[in-house]
Specification:
single chain, 329 residues, mainly beta, Immunoglobulin-like, 2 domains, disordered N terminus
C-alpha cells in the first residue's frame, strides 16, 4: 500500500524577507537553505512552521537570481504541521562553490504544485566550509535474534587519525544505539568493528543529519563479519577513499541508480561485481524490497513504491559494495 508521511514540526527563528502572498506565510520561518553535507545533489530547506494553517501536498522550488530553477522537491508529504521540518530538494547541477553567497527565491507550493502559497528571499551560503556539521550515528540490529556483544564505531580523518570513537554494548533491551557528533568539512572513514563475528543477519550503522531524510553514510556488518568501513565526505568535492590502514571494502561510488517512470536500474560503477545482494529502504529505515545474488546491471519495478526518496544498499559476501539514493517520481 502506498503511503505518504505527515510531519509534525517545533520552533526556531530566522530573519527573512517574505514577498506578497498569503498572510500565514509570515509565520513560516525559513531557518536555512543549504546542500546536504553528504551530497551535492540534495539541497535541504530547514524551516519552522508556526502558522495556524494547513498546507496539503507541499513542495518547494528554489530559483537563482536569474529565475532559473536550482532545486525542486519531489512531493513526499501529505501536509505540514506545527514545528520544525526539513525538506530535501533535488539540485539541478548547480555549481556548489565553497563559501559562495547565493541569492535567489524560494517558493512553497501546495496540491502537487497546483497552487503557489509563499515566496521567500534567500541569501545564504549553500555550500559552507567552516561550520561544524551536527550528525547522528545510529547503530541498529534490525533482526529478531538479539545481539550480545560490543561493536565499536570509529570515525577517522583522511590521514587515518581517529577523531571520534564509540563502544556500543548490545544486550537485552539495548539493540539500538545513538550518538551525536560534529564534523568539519573534509574526507572521513566510518569504521565498524567487533572482536566477535556478527551472529545475526546484519548490524546496520548510519551516519546522518539529525533528521530522517538526510543521505548520510551507511555501512553494515553482515553475518560472520568482524569489520567493515565506508568512506564519506562532509561538504567536500574531492573523491574520498577509506583511510589507509583500515580494513574495509565499502565504496559509496561503486553503484549508480538510473530511475525512470515505473522502474529503476542499478549499475556497477568502479567495481564489476557479480552475485550482488540488493536491498532498498525508505528514509525511515523500513526495508521495502530486495533481491539476492543478482548480476549488475539489474532492473526492478518501482510501481509499488510511494513517490519519494529511497536508499539502495548493495552487498557481496562479507562486505558492503555501495549505497546510493534514488527517487521514485
Amino acid at each position: 500500500m502506498k503511503k505518504l508521511f505527515i510531519i509534525a514540526l517545533l520552533p526556531l527563528v530566522f530573519g527573512q524577507s517574505v514577498f506578497s502572498q498569503n498572510a500565514f506565510c509570515d509565520s513560516v520561518y525559513i531557518n536555512s537553505v543549504r546542500f546536504d553535507p553528504f551530497s551535492d545533489s540534495i539541497i535541504v530547506v530547514s524551516l519552522n512552521w508556526q502558522a495556524l494553517h494547513f498546507i496539503s501536498y507541499p513542495g518547494f522550488i528554489l530559483y537563482d537570481a536569474n529565475g532559473d530553477t536550482v532545486a525542486r522537491e519531489q512531493v513526499n508529504f501529505f501536509g505540514i504541521g506545527m514545528g520544525d521540518a526539513h525538506h530535501a530538494l533535488v539540485a539541478y547541477n548547480y555549481p556548489h562553490q565553497h563559501g559562495a553567497q547565493f541569492q535567489g527565491t524560494l517558493q512553497l507550493w501546495s496540491g502537487f504544485y497546483q497552487q503557489l502559497e509563499c515566496t521567500y528571499a534567500v541569501d545564504e551560503i549553500l555550500w559552507p566550509t567552516s561550520d561544524c556539521t551536527e550528525l547522528v550515528l545510529a547503530g541498529t540490529n534490525f533482526f529478531a535474534q538479539e545481539l550480545n556483544q560490543t561493536v565499536t564505531a570509529d570515525i577517522l580523518d583522511h590521514n587515518g587519525n581517529v577523531v571520534a570513537t564509540y563502544d556500543h554494548v548490545y544486550a537485552t533491551g539495548a539493540q539500538n544505539h545513538y550518538d551525536t557528533l560534529c564534523l568539519n568539512a573534509g574526507c572521513y572513514t566510518l569504521n565498524i568493528h567487533s572482536t566477535l563475528p556478527i551472529p545475526t543477519d546484519y548490524v546496520n550503522y548510519n551516519l546522518t543529519r539529525p533528521w530522517w531524510n538526510s543521505q548520510g553514510a551507511w555501512v553494515q556488518l553482515a553475518n560472520g563479519m568482524t569489520e567493515d568501513s565506508v568512506a564519506f565526505k562532509i561538504y567536500n568535492n574531492d573523491t574520498c577513499e577509506i583511510a589507509q590502514g583500515v580494513e574495509g571494502t565499502s565504496d559509496l561510488t561503486a553503484i549508480a541508480i538510473v530511475s525512470s517512470q515505473g522502474q529503476a536500474e542499478v549499475r556497477a560503477m568502479e567495481l564489476a561485481n557479480n552475485q550482488i545482494d540488493l536491498h532498498w529502504y525508505d528514509l525511515t529505515g523500513q526495508k521495502v524490497g530486495g533481491v539476492n545474488q543478482v548480476n549488475l546491471p539489474f532492473t526492478f519495478s518501482t510501481l509499488h513504491l510511494a513517490k519519494g526518496m529511497y536508499l539502495m544498499h548493495a552487498s557481496a559476501p562479507g562486505r558492503t559494495v555501495g549505497t546510493e539514493l534514488f527517487i521514485v517520481k
